[in-house]
């Protein structure tokens, strides 16, 4: 059965519009609490960690979740502003029943969402999300007063997570002599990321670290790296590091102002691991640049594509028993370092590769050239069956035949808007653009 509320990254939407309303979020907390209470197998009462990013709506949604969990008899630890991967880590490290993050990641401030982590620090399995959705269909009740959940503040959450991040960087290395600009996107890592890099020895210039509840991701961070480019040049920094609102994405900038996306950083991480041992495989998505697929084949590294979304990358990694994967958007996974995508930890893996090789980002990625991608979004009517459009399918097949092994075509519906996304990848930008427009013209 299709999920009613849960998407690829929890429950998300515009604040004040269902389902991101205080009454629904309270019921969500209660439903999740009932599911967790059933799963505790007679052990001590379940305890949940709640973290959030810096959106103004986080206060309201945190209170609603806390009330729902308390009504279900679940204790709550409140961590305050904390990156999504920090909640995953602390949930596992503190042996808690689950972790909850109040965040809409890279979206603007007027959106928000709720996502869950299991006791092991992984995204909840689909089966557990289905159980929570089923519980949401039942009336909300309340346990007897003597069984109500309690809440407490976890005041040392940032410090614990900072130490964890540092532990993923080699003990024999440091960042002394490096000048870094760190863009925290006015988000959850604003008071964490700078400390990690500083304590490892870097000179850190921090931007995007003045959250006011409304400026998260606004013209800054991983989704708007031009601000970081300007700062790297202004301060003559060696590198720039851009995170998004909940710090699970990473985009980097070198001293020349060149931007490196998730595909290039994944390639660098795989290449670095190959220098010290075998890499059994890597996972990208349907949107991963074809240049990686070609490069990995030459390197003898098996490559698989997952559906778009870091949770699907994680699923394939776990299925294959591999550790490295990611998306061009900057979600990067190194499962031997963390259970989920982590912008700070990923940056440390890149920095350790630079230190180990003595080379720059440009030098380490000089042997791979990204294929130009052209993306055309076509609005469609609600319920439109684009797969049955024979003219569209014929044009797609014709383009694929013309491209051969020199490119590829991807058609996919948007998960959040009434759009068909037409993407063509080719070795020449003008060819990719003209072919994408040819296919887009046949969508309707």
Automatic annotation (TrEMBL):
The active site is at 105 (phosphoserine intermediate). It catalyses: alpha-D-glucosamine 1-phosphate = D-glucosamine 6-phosphate. InterPro entries: A-D-PHexomutase_a/b/a-I, A-D-PHexomutase_a/b/a-I/II/III, A-D-PHexomutase_a/b/a-II, A-D-PHexomutase_a/b/a-III, A-D-PHexomutase_C, A-D-PHexomutase_C_sf, A-D-PHexomutase_CS, Alpha-D-phosphohexomutase_SF. Catalyzes the conversion of glucosamine-6-phosphate to glucosamine-1-phosphate. It comes from the Bacteria. Residues 375-441 form the Alpha-D-phosphohexomutase C-terminal domain. This is Phosphoglucosamine mutase. The modification Phosphoserine is found at residue 105. Binds 1 Mg(2+) ion per subunit. Belongs to the phosphohexose mutase family. Pfam families: PGM_PMM_I, PGM_PMM_II, PGM_PMM_III, PGM_PMM_IV. Keywords: Isomerase, Magnesium, Metal-binding, Phosphoprotein. Activated by phosphorylation.
